[in-house]
Specification:
Length: about 180
Amino acid sequence: MTEEKALDLETRKRIFEYVSLNPGVHFRELQRSLDLPVGALDYHVKYLEKHELLATKQEGHYTRYYPRNRFDPSSKSILAFLRQDLPRGIIIFLLKNPRSTHGGILVNFRATGATLSYHLKRMSENNLLKAEKSGRETFYEISEPEKVADLLVTYRRSFMDELVESFAAAWTALK
Protein backbone atom coordinates (compact mmCIF):
# COMPACT_ATOMS: atom_id res chain seq x y z
CA MET A 1 0.00 0.00 0.00
CA THR A 2 1.29 3.45 -0.84
CA GLU A 3 1.90 6.14 1.75
CA GLU A 4 -0.82 8.26 0.15
CA LYS A 5 -3.35 5.43 0.49
CA ALA A 6 -2.38 4.72 4.11
CA LEU A 7 -2.85 8.41 4.95
CA ASP A 8 -6.25 8.71 3.23
CA LEU A 9 -8.00 8.77 6.56
CA GLU A 10 -7.83 12.18 8.25
CA THR A 11 -7.09 10.69 11.69
CA ARG A 12 -4.08 8.75 10.42
CA LYS A 13 -2.85 11.79 8.54
CA ARG A 14 -3.08 13.91 11.74
CA ILE A 15 -1.17 11.25 13.72
CA PHE A 16 1.55 10.96 11.09
CA GLU A 17 1.97 14.74 10.78
CA TYR A 18 2.12 15.18 14.55
CA VAL A 19 4.76 12.47 14.94
CA SER A 20 6.75 13.97 12.05
CA LEU A 21 6.81 17.34 13.81
CA ASN A 22 7.35 15.83 17.28
CA PRO A 23 9.57 12.76 16.83
CA GLY A 24 9.98 10.74 20.01
CA VAL A 25 6.52 11.62 21.29
CA HIS A 26 5.13 8.95 23.61
CA PHE A 27 1.69 7.36 23.34
CA ARG A 28 -0.10 9.32 26.11
CA GLU A 29 1.37 12.64 24.98
CA LEU A 30 0.20 11.88 21.45
CA GLN A 31 -3.24 10.90 22.74
CA ARG A 32 -3.60 14.10 24.81
CA SER A 33 -2.30 16.38 22.07
CA LEU A 34 -4.60 14.97 19.38
CA ASP A 35 -7.52 14.42 21.78
CA LEU A 36 -8.17 10.93 20.47
CA PRO A 37 -9.65 7.99 22.39
CA VAL A 38 -6.94 5.55 23.51
CA GLY A 39 -8.41 2.63 21.53
CA ALA A 40 -8.68 4.63 18.31
CA LEU A 41 -5.14 5.96 18.63
CA ASP A 42 -3.80 2.47 19.37
CA TYR A 43 -5.53 1.08 16.27
CA HIS A 44 -4.24 3.84 13.97
CA VAL A 45 -0.63 3.84 15.19
CA LYS A 46 -0.50 0.06 14.76
CA TYR A 47 -1.91 0.51 11.24
CA LEU A 48 0.78 3.12 10.48
CA GLU A 49 3.48 0.83 11.89
CA LYS A 50 2.21 -2.12 9.85
CA HIS A 51 2.34 0.00 6.69
CA GLU A 52 5.85 1.17 7.60
CA LEU A 53 5.09 4.85 8.10
CA LEU A 54 5.87 4.91 11.82
CA ALA A 55 8.57 3.23 13.86
CA THR A 56 8.40 2.66 17.60
CA LYS A 57 11.01 2.37 20.29
CA GLN A 58 10.42 1.13 23.83
CA GLU A 59 11.91 3.56 26.31
CA GLY A 60 11.32 2.21 29.82
CA HIS A 61 7.55 2.34 30.36
CA TYR A 62 7.04 4.53 27.29
CA THR A 63 6.51 3.65 23.67
CA ARG A 64 7.92 6.46 21.55
CA TYR A 65 6.98 7.08 17.91
CA TYR A 66 9.14 8.24 15.01
CA PRO A 67 8.57 8.63 11.29
CA ARG A 68 10.02 5.46 9.74
CA ASN A 69 13.53 5.65 8.20
CA ARG A 70 14.15 9.24 9.25
CA PHE A 71 16.27 8.68 12.36
CA ASP A 72 19.21 6.46 13.21
CA PRO A 73 19.13 4.66 16.59
CA SER A 74 21.38 7.27 18.20
CA SER A 75 19.09 10.14 17.13
CA LYS A 76 16.07 8.27 18.52
CA SER A 77 17.86 7.89 21.84
CA ILE A 78 18.81 11.58 21.90
CA LEU A 79 15.24 12.63 21.09
CA ALA A 80 13.86 10.36 23.82
CA PHE A 81 15.99 12.21 26.39
CA LEU A 82 15.14 15.60 24.90
CA ARG A 83 11.43 14.82 25.38
CA GLN A 84 11.95 14.77 29.18
CA ASP A 85 12.24 18.06 31.08
CA LEU A 86 15.14 17.34 33.46
CA PRO A 87 17.32 15.41 30.99
CA ARG A 88 16.69 18.13 28.37
CA GLY A 89 17.82 20.78 30.88
CA ILE A 90 20.93 18.78 31.74
CA ILE A 91 21.75 18.34 28.06
CA ILE A 92 21.39 22.06 27.34
CA PHE A 93 23.49 22.88 30.41
CA LEU A 94 26.24 20.49 29.25
CA LEU A 95 26.16 21.87 25.71
CA LYS A 96 26.83 25.30 27.20
CA ASN A 97 29.18 24.05 29.96
CA PRO A 98 31.13 21.00 28.75
CA ARG A 99 33.24 19.08 31.26
CA SER A 100 31.01 19.91 34.21
CA THR A 101 31.04 17.90 37.41
CA HIS A 102 28.05 16.42 39.21
CA GLY A 103 28.19 19.26 41.75
CA GLY A 104 28.51 21.89 39.04
CA ILE A 105 25.43 20.53 37.31
CA LEU A 106 23.43 20.00 40.50
CA VAL A 107 23.54 23.65 41.64
CA ASN A 108 21.68 24.62 38.47
CA PHE A 109 18.69 22.29 38.94
CA ARG A 110 15.97 21.61 41.46
CA ALA A 111 16.73 17.94 41.78
CA THR A 112 18.33 15.74 44.37
CA GLY A 113 21.84 14.45 43.90
CA ALA A 114 20.44 10.92 43.50
CA THR A 115 17.99 12.02 40.79
CA LEU A 116 20.76 13.80 38.89
CA SER A 117 23.03 10.74 39.23
CA TYR A 118 20.24 8.54 37.86
CA HIS A 119 19.81 10.70 34.74
CA LEU A 120 23.55 11.13 34.18
CA LYS A 121 24.03 7.36 34.43
CA ARG A 122 21.18 6.65 31.97
CA MET A 123 22.52 9.21 29.49
CA SER A 124 26.04 7.78 29.82
CA GLU A 125 24.78 4.22 29.30
CA ASN A 126 23.05 5.38 26.11
CA ASN A 127 26.26 7.06 24.88
CA LEU A 128 24.72 10.53 24.99
CA LEU A 129 27.28 11.63 27.57
CA LYS A 130 30.95 10.95 28.06
CA ALA A 131 31.99 10.63 31.70
CA GLU A 132 35.70 11.07 32.39
CA LYS A 133 37.03 10.34 35.85
CA SER A 134 39.90 12.46 37.11
CA GLY A 135 40.86 11.82 40.70
CA ARG A 136 37.67 11.98 42.78
CA GLU A 137 35.76 14.03 40.22
CA THR A 138 33.86 12.87 37.15
CA PHE A 139 33.55 15.32 34.27
CA TYR A 140 30.55 15.08 31.95
CA GLU A 141 30.15 16.28 28.40
CA ILE A 142 27.89 15.56 25.44
CA SER A 143 29.32 12.84 23.16
CA GLU A 144 28.12 14.38 19.89
CA PRO A 145 27.38 18.04 20.67
CA GLU A 146 26.77 19.07 17.04
CA LYS A 147 24.24 16.30 16.46
CA VAL A 148 22.43 16.95 19.76
CA ALA A 149 22.34 20.71 19.16
CA ASP A 150 21.06 20.23 15.61
CA LEU A 151 18.21 18.01 16.85
CA LEU A 152 17.36 20.56 19.55
CA VAL A 153 17.31 23.41 17.04
CA THR A 154 15.42 21.46 14.37
CA TYR A 155 12.64 20.31 16.71
CA ARG A 156 12.68 23.25 19.16
CA ARG A 157 9.03 24.12 18.58
CA SER A 158 7.97 20.64 19.64
CA PHE A 159 9.56 21.06 23.09
CA MET A 160 7.67 24.29 23.93
CA ASP A 161 10.45 25.31 26.29
CA GLU A 162 11.94 28.79 26.71
CA LEU A 163 15.32 27.28 27.59
CA VAL A 164 15.36 25.44 24.25
CA GLU A 165 14.34 28.59 22.39
CA SER A 166 17.13 30.67 23.94
CA PHE A 167 19.67 27.89 23.28
CA ALA A 168 18.46 27.58 19.66
CA ALA A 169 18.80 31.33 19.14
CA ALA A 170 22.34 31.35 20.53
CA TRP A 171 23.35 28.20 18.60
CA THR A 172 22.09 29.48 15.25
CA ALA A 173 23.80 32.84 15.85
CA LEU A 174 27.13 30.99 16.22
CA LYS A 175 26.76 29.18 12.89
